[in-house]
Specification:
Layout (H helix, E strand, L loop, with lengths): L16 E2 L11 E3 L2 E5 L2 E6 L2 E6 L6 E9 L7 E7 L2 E8 L5 E6 L11 E9 L3 E3 L1 E9 L22 E4 L2 E2 L4 E7 L3 E9 L4 E10 L2 E7 L12 E9 L2 E9 L2
Parallel strand pairs: 14-20
Antiparallel strand pairs: 1-12, 2-5, 3-4, 4-11, 5-10, 6-9, 6-12, 7-8, 7-10, 13-15, 15-18, 16-17, 16-19, 19-20
Length: 251
């Protein structure tokens, strides 16, 4: 059952990334869990006191929503708090054998500076904190006042007039072409990250002239080795702002 107060709006067609809860191998997004449990058709991450996840690659030019699915099989009602960077954004009460889906908007001031947030799911009532699904969605571009009643931070919003695009978002042997533009002489950095947040390749780093710049990535790391198939993120830093584009590498 979806919470009507937290229902999503203006979502992109597909989710941005899935945090991989319930996997036998702990997800790279998960920082703290005690283990996994299987209940009915759900496999969940659980922890006696609280779960913790790192949500990276958040572009300050956009609003993001987290979709969390809760499920438990005990006889009592459980309650979990849903905190972002230590700020409580939701309290979830869920009954036995009934999945509860909650949508939460991430306040932009929490990721405007470093493009990531930490999510804590803590136990209030029940045997332990548990979550059966956790996905991040990129929504509409940010506009002043879009923070769901939470005051925005003071960080500048990247100028939408300065494009950053990826040609060939599904990366194959031919590679991808990245294009970006700057309006004045300034420092620009273009890096490729893997899903764990580790730098794979630095495509550009230094002072650039105004105008359009085109860079190609051939799917190799800093040592010239071909990287494995999976999801990668292209991050452009320019003029004190950051933008991120997702690409999928296929072989």
């Amino acid at each position: 059952m979806e919470n009507p107060l937290l229902c999503p709006r203006n979502l992109t067609k597909n989710w941005y990334y899935d945090c991989g809860v319930g996997d036998s191998v702990q997800s790279q997004f998960c920082l703290v869990r005690d283990g996994i449990a299987e209940w009915r058709d759900y496999q969940v991450d659980y922890a006696r006191e609280g779960l913790r996840y790192r949500l990276p690659f958040l572009n300050p030019a956009y609003i993001y929503k987290v979709r969390a699915i809760y499920f438990q099989a005990s006889r009592d009602t459980w309650v979990n708090d849903f905190d972002l960077e230590g700020r409580r954004v939701a309290r979830v009460s869920y009954s036995p054998l009934q999945p509860e889906t909650v949508w939460v908007t991430i306040p932009r001031d929490l990721y405007a500076d470093d493009c990531e947030v930490t999510l804590d799911i803590s136990r209030v009532a029940g045997d332990y904190a548990a979550v059966a699904g956790l996905r991040l969605y990129q929504c509409s571009p940010y506009r002043q006042g879009d923070d769901g009643g939470v005051r925005a931070g003071s960080a500048a919003v990247p100028a939408e007039a300065l494009p950053f695009s990826v040609v060939g978002a599904s990366l194959s042997r031919r590679g991808i072409t990245l294009s970006y533009q700057v309006g004045a002489p300034e420092f620009a950095s273009l890096r490729i990250y893997d899903a764990r947040g580790a730098v794979v390749r630095v495509l550009a780093s230094g002072q650039v002239l105004p105008g359009r710049h085109v860079v190609r990535w051939d799917g190799t790391d800093v040592g010239g080795r071909r990287v494995p198939a999976g999801t990668y993120f292209c991050r452009l830093d320019r003029g004190g702002t950051s933008q991120v584009r997702k690409v999928v590498l296929t072989r």
